[in-house]
């Protein structure tokens, strides 16, 4: 588990309805952070169905709080990572976020 927080972007670069991606500095896990009506959510930036980045052309629907993988159409709830439709059945990992020193931070907190 990483105790080191990873800087994703400045707070002003992640407006409501937007997403930004980065990599955990310790574990190397890809992370995508979403701004959903001012609340920040972070998921592993990898579809649980296929090894493909959710942020790589994926459709973030801010109203529904979902991200759709562009590869095969699997959708996930950005608030908890759960899979919402086939072909994905497994959730994607959810990570903690925080705002500090004018920046958006996230980390891979898995054991």
Automatic annotation (TrEMBL):
<dbReference type="GO" id="GO:0046872">
    <property type="term" value="F:metal ion binding"/>
</dbReference>
<protein>
    <submittedName>
        <fullName>Benzene 1,2-dioxygenase</fullName>
    </submittedName>
</protein>
<feature type="domain" description="Rieske">
    <location>
        <begin position="6"/>
        <end position="106"/>
    </location>
</feature>
<dbReference type="GO" id="GO:0051213">
    <property type="term" value="F:dioxygenase activity"/>
</dbReference>
<dbReference type="Pfam" id="PF00355">
    <property type="entry name" value="Rieske"/>
</dbReference>
<keyword id="KW-0479">Metal-binding</keyword>
<dbReference type="InterPro" id="IPR017941">
    <property type="entry name" value="Rieske_2Fe-2S"/>
</dbReference>
<dbReference type="InterPro" id="IPR036922">
    <property type="entry name" value="Rieske_2Fe-2S_sf"/>
</dbReference>
<dbReference type="GO" id="GO:0051537">
    <property type="term" value="F:2 iron, 2 sulfur cluster binding"/>
</dbReference>
<keyword id="KW-0408">Iron</keyword>
<keyword id="KW-0001">2Fe-2S</keyword>
<keyword id="KW-0560">Oxidoreductase</keyword>
<keyword id="KW-0411">Iron-sulfur</keyword>
<keyword id="KW-0223">Dioxygenase</keyword>
